[in-house]
Write a structure and sequence with these properties.
Blueprint: E1 6-12, H1 18-29, E2 34-36, E3 45-52, H2 60-63, E4 67-75, E5 77-79, E6 88-90, H3 99-107, E7 111-115, E8 124-125, E9 128-129, H4 130-135, E10 145-158, E11 161-168, H5 174-185, E12 189-199, E13 202-203, H6 210-215, H7 218-221, E14 237-239, H8 242-249, E15 270-273, E16 279-285, E17 291-296
């Protein structure tokens, strides 16, 4: 294993857990340190940003990012797990064919709402995933979570399969959303397939499969890694003087000039850069005029 630093946009295949996919990618890059930025269910496919080396320091900033999914719903049936793994029963009513009605139903689910996590999920209760309790026939009370649905677009209706694009906040369970769509349509629905196509500013079109990576020469693989700073590009930027950057690098809290920063940035995490534009890490301006380090790149990466 060797030091490898950067972000890999992986197109995760169906049937692999996010951790197994991570370890396979780590092996291909011979990376010492690796982590992911939020899991995908084994049966889901699509965009899984992976972090190697110094990028792992900033991976948590992508956990809160909005996500986008292409989802296929099977209408006219109910599943006791919300997906294909459950027992299927007929839905309560006929499948609607009026596209205007379906679009209006999708539109009715936009915005902020409370969602109860499903029992068949990896969410843990007393150290055990909920699906363990569900398989044992035990129901655990789950508090509702506040989520936000930014977009629900009808892509295609073919026979009993409804394909949609769903853009939503972190923590949204698309299976639960699919069931609610089925309830409002009056016919029932379960999630047939799920493919993540967006995480924050990253898109699936730029992702590579494990097979594509394996076919590359080892010397070519690192050219497909994005820099660690791409994980925090949504944060405001501060360009430091050489004196400020050096002080921050050596564990000090340098003073900044108020005219160099908007007052709105006080107590807000910002990206900080050396005078030559090299990414130094993250820091937080304080009301007392000092800049406090939050997380910095290692010294070997900024020399």
């Amino acid at each position: 294993m060797r030091p490898v630093h950067g972000v890999l946009l992986l197109d995760k295949p169906r049937g692999l857990s996010s951790n197994v996919a991570l370890q396979k990618a780590r092996h291909l890059f011979h990376a010492e340190k690796a982590g992911h930025t939020g899991t995908l269910d084994p049966e889901a496919t699509g965009l899984l940003p992976l972090c190697f080396g110094e990028a792992t320091k900033f991976s948590s900033y992508l956990l809160d990012a909005p996500k986008g999914y292409e989802a296929t719903l099977c209408l006219g049936e109910l599943s006791d797990t919300g997906d294909a793994e459950g027992n299927l029963t007929p839905g309560p009513g006929p499948i609607p064919s009026d596209l205007a009605f379906i679009k209006a139903t999708l539109h009715s689910l936009l915005g902020s709402q409370a969602q109860i996590p499903p029992m068949h999920s990896a969410l843990k209760h007393e150290g055990r995933p909920l699906y363990d309790y569900a398989r044992a026939g035990i129901e655990i009370a789950r508090p509702a979570r506040q989520i936000f649905v930014f977009k629900l677009e009808l892509l295609e209706l073919e026979d009993r399969f409804l394909r949609i694009q769903a853009d939503c906040s972190k923590g949204t369970y698309i299976r639960v959303l699919a069931e609610e769509i089925g309830r409002r349509l009056g016919c029932g629905a379960w999630l047939s397939s799920l493919r993540r196509n967006r995480t924050g500013g990253f898109v699936l079109e730029n992702a590579l499969t494990l097979e594509a990576i394996a076919e590359l020469q080892e010397s070519q693989r690192e050219s497909h890694l994005l820099s660690p700073e791409t994980l925090v590009e949504d944060l405001p930027r501060m360009d430091l003087s050489l004196v400020q950057a050096q002080a921050l690098r050596h564990g000090q809290s340098p003073v900044f000039e108020w005219e160099d920063i908007a007052a709105a940035l006080i107590d807000q995490t910002a990206r900080v850069y050396w005078p030559d534009g090299l990414f130094l890490g993250l820091a937080k301006p304080q009301a007392n005029g000092q800049l406090v380090a939050v997380r910095l790149m290692s010294e070997s990466m900024i020399q």
